[in-house]
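dumping these here so i dont lose them again. two proteins, back to back, each one seq then structure tokens. dont judge the mess
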Amino acid sequence: MRNNTEGGEPVTQIGETRRELALDCFLLAGKLLMENGAETYRVEDTMIRMAISQKMTDSHCFVTPTGLMFSPSDELATRFVRINSRRTDLERVALVNSVSRKLVAGELALAEAYEELKTIDRTNYMFNIWLQILAAATASGCFLILLGGNWSDLPFAFVFGGTGFIIVETILEKTRVKFFAEFVGALAIGVFALLAVYSGYGKNLDTIIIGSIMPLVPGLLITNAVRDLMAGHFVSGLSKGAEAFLTAFAIGAGIALVLSF
């Protein structure tokens, strides 16, 4: 007669606990990927591969920029996780991909993979804010030269790009309204560039402005929108494209407001 216990616990209870752990692991992996700038098809592919590795061969998932759903193969119930914030942190994306690959390859047990994902979720991999500001300022100066600007305008693009980045991050931290932060940051950059040129120190208004706002341009968002559309994820592609358009519109509106006077 078959023993219905294993280590003092019913076998059905152990199976239920393992299934819940697996669902938590898949959803956390998908949530981390979506929050940190991964493409929609990458998120779905990662979750399905992890599910197959745990013998859930007929599972289904549906991912959008604001939430993801997962339905295991042996249940009618569907789990849902809300995506409340999105940013660009490719370090986390790479780490989650590494954990998923190890789980699929059998190099990690399910519980170990879940613990590593929770560690990734708790750890802040972003560079120090002053290093981010320096990177934004340096990128602004490099874009000015790349666009054929005068070397004498390089300090202005360097300073204005870094200042605009500070303004955007400060407002974003206070209000959590990305489009308003981008608008105010672009407006400030436009005002600073206009004052520099009108005072006689700056030479080319266009290249100073364009170089300074480049760190604010949603390049990764546009790329992911196009890649999702090409992969057939029209809901995610269109929503990401709309977000990129609104961000670009906010930046353009801030500059246009300055140049209209």
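---- next one ----
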Amino acid sequence: MITISGGAGRMGSDTGLPDERPAHDIEVQSFRLDRSPVSVADFAAFISDTRHETDAERLEGGAVMSFGTGQWRLVPGAIWRSPYGPQGPEAQADHPVTQVSHSDAEAYCRWRDKRLPTEKEWEFAARAGQDGEPVYAFGDRLLREGEYLANVWTGIFPVLNTAEDGFKTTSPVGAFGTTPIGLTDMAGNVWEWTSSPYGPYGPYGDDALQADNPAAPRVQRGGSYLCDPKLCHGFRVSARGHATPDSAHMHVGFRCAADVLN
């Protein structure tokens, strides 16, 4: 894990999508954050030790998008071991685990004596080590000397993925380097669950909205390999996704956080 010193920061964007507005000042306590998203191998160890049944297994499937049409459907047997369904490729050990619900992510983090990060902590970490208003967790440009700095959609979504960045689906954890403070995969690859309920920013604070409603959608951050810069552009530092806590998708994973002990 990487220790992130707390302090004042900025959250949101006045030029982003409506749910990113308004940009506002925040205060964050020091915390620790996993260097990388939880891998398939990490999650397999958790399952072996706890015999945890994921929501996708309990509900007999997860959400899979059809390449070419962009349509989402519930695929029986699409679980963390086979995120695209029984007929698709098996999940690779060094890739981020997917087809995990918010509840599954919480269970894993508890097993590690950790917790999910808040949305506020996640964005604070994504901006850390950079001056001004960075576009991405790694800076202001998606490409450096012609090389992609994140695993995103390249081509024409959803018809054609040219894989110019080297991958059509998930990539190995850490394949695109680190942010200035040493975190990997904070943009692209997979969306990541946070502990925060989803709602508009407002006077009560982003973490307080619907906090007592266990069925309220939870915020996801970081974008994924399905994010097209010309469309959702979800891998920007201020971009937000969300889903219900029991849902599982082929492009959503997580990483854990922890408090800094005094």
